[in-house]
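Quarterly update from the structural biology core.
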Amino acid sequence: MKNRTGIIAAMDSELRDLLGDLHKESSERIGGREIHYGRLEGHDVAMTLCGCGKVNAALTATLLAFHANVSRILVTGVSGGLAEGVTVGDVVIGDSFIQHDMDARPLFPRHVIPYEGFSLIEAEPEMRTLLAGAARGMLASKRPPGLENASVLEGLLVSGDLFLSDNEARESVLKALPKACAVDMESAAIAQVCRTGGLPLGVMRVISDSADGSAEIDFAKFVENSASKACAETVRHALRALKD
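Predicted structure, tokenized:
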């Protein structure tokens, strides 16, 4: 379908928030994913949960791109903060993506995807602008608890099949990729699929921790009560501003 927006949510609570507003038309289960079709904020959408890790992410993005025939993909969820000054509650909009655990040396340089010839994938500028504006709109109009001092940042998102839970792992990633702003387990894999399929991609992440195991908040409570609501509301703002 022309101009259908694919929405990949990382959390059950976030998808639940959006499904409550969806004018649902149908759903189907394929590849272990439940894809929900309908209208949200005046736009045709296909929404599904991603699951953790790059394989799950790539599978989900592939289903939306080549089965659900979406024309763009929006990704929401939480991530760990890496850059200095990034704090819990901040919203990071991905301007580029790298798989931090891609390492096929000595056959290929570190981070370069074998036989593809690139490591860094840049976000589509219009999608970046759309999501950055949507995140600022969310903070201005409906700021969830825990995001009282939040800022909106744009930067490099790095992804890998490793949950960074100690300072040693965090510093190892930053040493190799000092410009990294935040880390997750999915975005760069989705970006590779979108590049292959020629689909614009927008990714927004709410910072939930410092990727070093030192979080002082109740992670589950923050995700349920704060991050998921911020993510869902940002998607709503983005769709309202989206021009077909």
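Residues 219-241 form the longest helix (23 residues).
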